[in-house]
């Protein structure tokens, strides 16, 4: 059995310019922010990012790393509009494939199931079809004859997700109320990197919670990174909630200034700066 | 806190009732309110005339009004529930037009928007699969537009052959209640809140809206409904943050 533990910087060293990258979580919830921060410390760019967008998208867009974004929304949840993403869109900085939340999910399912597409009753009649002229429809071969969108598989070169616990082999566990789509991201990807709050022995996983909390299976995982507070400033229930004060500071600070204050150093420097609280108004 | 002790019913409380009424007679379906006043309305409906409704805690748990968990509904199951149709959502709308097309994505040209908003979110899947109502806390010409900049929620003139499960039961604003029960499915007023005149609504709507002079008034809350709103569901008066009148 192979030990897949690695570091965030090693994960990033395996990524390349131009890759299609899936990022787990939802909005400003359980985002693999330590991995995103490592990505921001690298020079990797020209990415296609596939995400139920939150600050992961805001930061990568602000830093000019995204060539194309595939998403149904970008939000900070408690702050509805992600200001850095907004600015990037309003200056025309990235290509966008804007699709519905369910279309996105079925695109991941198609990729995980090695299907070219799945039919979905969503998109037809909306401007999702106008702004994505590449989307095709498919007509039911049965008596109903209904027309659906043939949602193409969202196949990923790499997936980045963050969970509460994992073992060294890549079995990932969520302890919060919602798995989001993190298992699907890993299954839809050629390589998948799981960061977690704490790496524990395999036997420990089911002492803390029932087996159905074991969301991510090791055969879908390439590398495991222990990253305490690694979803900060997004939520990682039940380990911690969203750091609303910090998120507010992020949203109200010019990107260049935020990046200089928090992202120029390594993850340890970031976590120290967060703890010291010198950013507080 | 003055409004709390006042016997006078506020505009926000009329809006709560108008939202709650959207879920009347819906049976055992998930009520998905977005926004403060729709959330208060859904809980009021659940506590009174629609006791079979299911409600979430805003995260992944189905809860009774007292907070007791009764089910699990993570996002993946929520999206599947939508396509099963056993849900009535009340979404917001940055723009809505006379046929009920809704926009929450962006203002201006989609290629390079003047103002980027949320994105289409689940509006396309919602409108083709389960009843979708709308809540617009500030009725204005900026919100009630001739043509939306991006069709997210699908209106009656765009739905075409995908109309099988399409229905927009109502639109509630701070001025009144509207529906699409007309021969061409264009919007019409169902009732106006007290103090709102037909002229007021016409002026605040950028498309031509026929408002008969005898359009009824929105119904007031009963004494029990008012008690539930003020003492049980929203003692902090958060509703006044959404509709101040």
UniProtKB/TrEMBL annotation, chain A:
Q: What parts of the sequence cross the membrane?
A: none
**Which organism does this record belong to?**
Streptomyces lanatus
Give a Pfam family name.
CoA_trans
Claim: Transferase is one of the keywords in the record: yes
Gene3D superfamilies cross-referenced by the UniProt entry:
3.30.30.40, Glutaconate Coenzyme A-transferase
Q: What is this protein called?
A: CoA transferase subunit A
Q: Output the Gene Ontology terms for molecular function.
A: transferase activity
Keyword annotations of the record: Transferase
Keyword flag Transferase? yes
Top-level taxon of origin: Bacteria
């Amino acid at each position: 059995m192979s030990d897949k533990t690695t570091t965030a910087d090693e994960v990033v060293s395996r990524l390349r310019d131009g890759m299609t990258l899936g990022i787990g979580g939802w909005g400003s919830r359980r985002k693999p922010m330590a991995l995103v921060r490592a990505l921001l410390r690298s020079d990797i760019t020209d990415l296609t990012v596939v995400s139920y967008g939150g600050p992961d998208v805001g930061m990568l867009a602000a830093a000019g790393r995204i060539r194309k974004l595939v998403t149904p929304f970008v939000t900070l949840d408690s702050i509805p509009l992600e200001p850095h993403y907004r600015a990037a869109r309003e200056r025309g900085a990235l290509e966008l494939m804007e699709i519905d939340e369910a279309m996105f999910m079925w695109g991941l399912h198609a990729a995980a199931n090695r299907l070219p597409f799945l039919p979905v009753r969503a998109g037809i009649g909306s401007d999702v079809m106008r702004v994505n002229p590449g989307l095709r429809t498919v007509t039911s071969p049965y008596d109903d004859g209904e027309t659906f969108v043939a949602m193409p598989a969202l196949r990923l070169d790499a997936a980045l997700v963050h969970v509460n616990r994992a073992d060294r082999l890549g079995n990932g566990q969520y302890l919060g109320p919602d798995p989001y789509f993190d298992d699907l991201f890993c299954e839809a990807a050629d390589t998948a990197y799981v960061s977690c709050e704490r790496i524990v022995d395999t036997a420990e996983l089911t002492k803390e919670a029932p087996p159905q909390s074991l969301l991510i299976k090791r055969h879908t995982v390439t590398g495991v990174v222990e990253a305490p507070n690694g979803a900060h400033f997004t939520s990682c229930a039940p380990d911690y909630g969203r750091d609303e004060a910090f998120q507010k500071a992020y949203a109200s600070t010019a990107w260049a200034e935020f990046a200089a204050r928090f992202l120029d150093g390594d993850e340890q420097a970031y976590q120290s700066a967060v703890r010291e609280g010198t950013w507080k108004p | 806190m003055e409004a709390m002790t006042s016997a006078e019913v506020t505009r926000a409380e009329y809006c709560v009732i108008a939202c709650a009424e959207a879920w009347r007679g819906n049976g055992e379906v998930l009520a998905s309110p977005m926004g403060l006043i729709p959330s208060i309305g859904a809980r009021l409906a659940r506590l009174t005339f629609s006791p079979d409704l299911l409600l979430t805690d805003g995260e992944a748990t189905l809860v009774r009004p007292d907070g007791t968990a009764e089910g699990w509904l993570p996002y993946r199951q929520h999206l599947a529930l939508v396509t099963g149709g056993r849900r009535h959502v009340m979404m917001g709308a940055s723009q809505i037009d006379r046929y009920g097309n809704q926009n929450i994505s962006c203002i201006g040209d989609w290629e390079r928007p003047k103002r980027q908003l949320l994105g289409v979110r689940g509006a396309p899947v919602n409108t083709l699969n389960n009843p979708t109502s709308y809540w617009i806390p500030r009725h204005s010409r900026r919100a009630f537009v001739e043509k939306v900049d991006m069709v997210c929620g699908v209106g009656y003139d765009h739905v075409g052959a995908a109309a099988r499960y399409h229905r927009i039961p109502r639109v509630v604003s701070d001025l009144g209640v509207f529906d699409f029960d007309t021969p061409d499915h264009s919007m019409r007023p169902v009732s106006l809140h007290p103090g709102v005149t037909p002229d007021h609504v016409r002026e605040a709507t950028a498309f031509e809206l026929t408002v008969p002079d005898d359009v009824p008034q929105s119904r007031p809350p009963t004494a029990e409904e008012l008690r539930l709103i003020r003492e049980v569901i929203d003692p902090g008066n958060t509703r006044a943050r959404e509709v101040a009148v």
